[in-house]
Amino acid sequence: MNIHERYGLTRVINARGTFTPLGVSRSSERVAKTVAQALGEFFIIEELQSLVSQAAVDLAGGEAAAVTHCVSAATTIAVAAAMAGSDPKKVAALPDASGMPDRVVLPAGHAVDYGHPNTTDIRLAGAFPVLAGSEAMCSTRDLEAALAHERTACLLLVSSRLTTGSPVDLREAVAAAHRRNVPAIIDAAAQGMRMDALLSTGADAVLFSAQKYLASPTAGLIIGRAEFVRDCRVQERGIGRAMKPTKEAILGVLAAIEDRRDLEPAAWREAQARKVAWFVDRVKHVSSVTASEVPDPSGMPFSRVRLTVRAEGEGWNAAVLAARLRSETPPIWVMEHGAGEGHLFLELVPLDDAELEVIADRLTHCAAGRSAAAPLPN
User: Fold this and answer.
1) Given pLDDT bands bounded at 50, 70 and 90, which one contains residue 372?
2) What is the CATH number of the domain that holds 102?
3) 272 and 246: one domain?
């Protein structure tokens, strides 16, 4: 009896990517065994953090790393570190930021909602967000104007498909902050396969989700300058205490890094490309739906499948197709952010061949019965 049967849980096919409400990712056998062993033992947590720090730096670059509970926690901790440093009194005082720099500058298009507003993470540290530019565009000049204030604690940038407006040159933005002696932090939660590229921007800290493409237990990774990472760790004596990682999470991250170290990138990319090509070919004869390969919008090294649905009244459109895919057993979840324009997107990275067959068969079935079926409720 599997875990879904044991507890009466819904088995899901997740073509929506590293989506937190669906459990984010699937961990490897190495990670699962490491976590299981960790649960039955005692450790010196500082030793575990030191192990992960060295492993993360060897893998991705930077000078040091630390594990947090998640990237949301890492954002709050990094902002706190920018305000309080390692001063014990200031660390203990937060979120009362009296007498500390408390302005966090971020491009307006980088104020995103990934289940909650990332500006909430800023406010939790006792700081307040200052939005530079507009949602349509934020230039280096806009950033410099916002940074030119004595109470500025840090610059927060986001590398994600959720950002809006013209892309911000992260390297230039980091340089602008450093010209003001302001630390720069990059929230790169779902960019775990672009670690080296984002660290090469010169940011003081880059924040990665370890449970997304590293596929560890729930955890965040802060990688960057040794002094700044040290200040982040010091926050565990203050508000970061509620955001600390567990022993099994830290060792799970270490095992996930070992998985990544052993990965052959070219072979992995080829395997992902093969899945996408197979799926596009498999559903090419489905009526009213056209499948195509599109690159990941945030620069990750794999493609997605785009389904373009030819609408036929309210009874058949992209939103209706998504609802029908999700309504049967097992439910299939896809990305729906483009449904208004007639597009659905599928990320196939964590899926096996049997799951791809189920999706293809379901898609064919839904399209074949489109005219007879009424729209499903949301």
Assistant:
1) very low
2) 3.40.640.10
3) no
